[in-house]
Task: inverse folding
């Protein structure tokens, strides 16, 4: 843990303080270049492009909808305006018809009295008044000519053929009759009214010249100043029938509306076009406002999306780098742990020899994690006279140093056992062998000499916990003097204890990983081992080892464990 | 990190001072194990450099000690004539007893 935290300290001192820099300083592979440098050439991310296009699409939809609404509204307004103008035109009819009808009545009543006719019509005729010319005609006479004229001489008077045709129709019509557009001698339009039902009666005929080129603008302050118009006689839209217009260009293009207005025996066709937006300027520019604002919003959204996308990409790449580093670390850790465990197992006996009358099982359990080699070991070897020697020990600390010390002690103990197999002697020799001035480490060792036939057990402990001896019923730790560990003092007089072993007993020797827990006193762990092993006393040694490993072996990350189980068959 | 560190972060607090009688004293509290014995080793080294006759190790706050911790305590006995333990908890005392070290690491005489 100390090593790790000091390393973390180095990392946080990376120049930029960024974790990425730290990772690189740590010697890891540099992340993809897109992560580091601002890319040499900026290209919008795909998602940003999509966002922008979506924005444009929505903008276009809104704009087109607004345009369509605008268009529809303008058309509706124009139709309304055309109807209004038509109404105004319709209202003009009586103002023309009434004086003419009255004059016709008067002529009938006075048998065409010219003086009274003139006197009656005079107020209606002249510049700025209703008519340019009004004349009285006697119908049915062979020579068709006005009998009285107020104002200008009527153009119809110089068009006898046209006049005859017109009056032939007019005298049978009880309405206001309208001539076609008279072209000569000047373009004009005539109106006629005759008293219906009177044979050889009088017709009153009024005439107005058409404006020059048929053009007449509308006053700026007129209610219709927002319109241009063209007024045709009849249902026609031909230029020949054009009466008056404010338009310059024909045929009429663009938005226009028309209304047909009955006028006497004929009709007027009114065509109007708007001068500008009828619904107001803001409404007209709304589609464009939407386009501009929409494009701006789309652009902003795209930029923000791009930023987000880049951040996410960065985070993902960073996660990728960190994941890879973690994976590499994990792999290195696994490899080193594998090496450590291989080494550990290499230092321990491959297989235990067979002993008559005994069944033996042993196991080394490495620390639950960590990459260090542990310091626990065991040995069961044949000694003289059918006896066997069990050695189990634990070198303090971990790592290669502990492991080499362990290997040293293991082989030394085997060598001493071959010379003289008394446990106390083996421990004393081991103690002398180890340079006791070098206190980098110490080792606890339990040495046990087992006489199978004599059913006896002689043990000596150098700081090692006594083994558990289970007879048919109960388990007890063998009572013995615990001497100082190996490596503490030289020339120590190691004591040994001999006990007799009941039939079919089981001996369990172990290292502290099996009983030591951080949160409890050792006796608790010892009691737990005693109870567990006693409960499993009928198991074969292999199964008992398996059970103890499963139930009791230290889950502590740092602690390795060795277990040796010896069972008397008789 | 858990797997990588290989162990659980055991915390130990080491306090070096001199007691009322002028004897150097190291108070060790928390959990002492392989991962942090180095700090106790350093504290002992700094005191033994002055070659004191006595050293008191106050273990009253020590909840757990593994074999690496014992190893450091034994190391102290090699450098100082008289090393005494003060107030070890029952758990720590049991570890010392079961390791056969009661003679090597005696309790402070009262």
Result:
């Amino acid at each position: 843990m100390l090593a790790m935290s000091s390393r973390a300290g180095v990392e946080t001192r990376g120049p930029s303080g960024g974790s990425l820099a730290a990772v690189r300083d740590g010697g890891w592979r540099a992340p993809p270049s897109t992560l580091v440098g601002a890319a040499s050439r900026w290209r919008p991310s795909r998602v940003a492009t999509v966002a922008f296009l979506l924005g444009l699409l929505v903008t276009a939809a809104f704009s087109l909808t607004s345009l369509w609404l605008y268009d529809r509204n303008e058309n509706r307004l124009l139709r309304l305006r055309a109807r209004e103008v038509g109404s105004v035109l319709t209202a003009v009819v009586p103002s023309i018809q009434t004086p003419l009808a009255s004059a016709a009545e008067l002529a009938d009543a006075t048998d065409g009295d010219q003086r009274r006719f003139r006197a009656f019509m005079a107020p209606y005729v002249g510049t700025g008044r209703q008519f340019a010319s009004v004349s009285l005609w006697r119908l049915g006479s062979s020579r068709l000519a006005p009998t009285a004229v107020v104002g200008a001489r009527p153009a119809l008077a110089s068009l006898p053929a046209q006049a005859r045709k017109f009056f032939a129709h007019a005298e049978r019509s009880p309405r206001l009759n309208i001539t076609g557009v008279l072209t000569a001698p000047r373009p004009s339009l005539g109106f006629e009214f005759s008293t219906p039902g009177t044979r050889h009666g009088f017709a009153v005929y009024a005439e107005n010249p058409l404006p020059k080129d048929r053009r007449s603008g509308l006053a700026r302050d007129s209610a219709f100043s927002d319109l241009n118009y063209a007024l045709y006689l009849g249902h026609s839209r031909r230029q020949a029938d054009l009466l008056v217009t404010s338009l310059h260009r024909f045929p009429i293009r663009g938005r226009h509306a028309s209304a047909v207005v009955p006028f006497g025996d004929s009709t007027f066709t009114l065509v109007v076009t708007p001068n500008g937006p009828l619904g107001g300027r803001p409404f007209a520019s709304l589609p464009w406002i939407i386009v501009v604002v929409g494009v701006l919003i789309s652009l902003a959204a795209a930029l923000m999306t791009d930023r987000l996308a880049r951040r996410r990409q960065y985070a993902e790449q960073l996660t990728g780098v960190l994941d890879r580093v973690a994976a590499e670390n994990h792999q290195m850790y696994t490899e080193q742990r594998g090496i450590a465990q291989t080494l550990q197992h290499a230092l321990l006996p491959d297989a235990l020899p067979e002993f008559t009358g005994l069944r033996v099982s042993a196991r080394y359990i490495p620390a639950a994690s960590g990459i260090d080699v542990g310091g626990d070991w065991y040995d069961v070897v044949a000694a003289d006279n059918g006896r066997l020697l069990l050695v189990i020990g634990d070198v303090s600390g971990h790592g290669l140093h502990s492991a080499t010390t362990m290997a040293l002690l293991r082989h030394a103990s085997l060598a001493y056992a071959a010379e003289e197999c008394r446990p106390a002697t083996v421990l004393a020799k081991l103690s002398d062998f180890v340079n006791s001035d070098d206190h980098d480490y110490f080792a606890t060792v339990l040495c046990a000499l087992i006489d199978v036939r004599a059913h006896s057990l002689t043990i000596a402990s150098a700081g090692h916990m006594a083994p558990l001896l289970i007879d048919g019923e109960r388990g007890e730790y063998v009572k013995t003097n615990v001497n100082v560990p190996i490596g503490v003092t030289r020339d120590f007089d190691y004591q040994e204890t001999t006990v007799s072993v009941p039939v079919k007993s089981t001996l369990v020797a172990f290292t502290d990983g099996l009983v030591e827990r951080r949160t409890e006193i050792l006796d608790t762990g010892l009691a737990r081992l005693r109870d567990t092993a006693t409960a499993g006393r009928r198991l074969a040694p292999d199964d008992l080892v398996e059970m103890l490993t499963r139930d009791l072996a230290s889950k502590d990350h740092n602690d390795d464990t060795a277990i040796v189980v010896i069972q008397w068959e008789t | 990190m858990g797997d990588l560190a290989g162990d659980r972060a055991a915390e130990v607090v080491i306090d070096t001072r001199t007691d009322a009688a002028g004897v150097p004293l190291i108070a060790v509290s928390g959990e002492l194990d392989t991962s942090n014995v180095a700090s106790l080793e350093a504290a002992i080294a700094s005191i033994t450099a002055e070659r004191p006759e006595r050293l008191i190790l106050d273990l009253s706050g020590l909840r757990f000690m593994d074999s690496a911790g014992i190893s450091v305590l034994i190391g102290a006995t090699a450098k100082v004539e008289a090393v005494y333990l003060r107030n070890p908890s029952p758990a720590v005392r049991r570890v010392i007893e079961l390791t056969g070290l009661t003679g090597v690491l005696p309790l402070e005489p009262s």
Summary: Chain B has one domain: 2-98. Residues 67-79 of chain B form the longest helix (13 residues). The interface with chain A takes residues 1-10, 31, 33-36, 38, 63-64, 66-68, 70-71, 74-75, 77-78, 90-91, 94-95, 97-101, 103-104 of chain B (CB under 8 Å). Residues 2-98 of chain B form a domain with the Transcription Regulator spoIIAA fold (CATH 3.30.750.24).
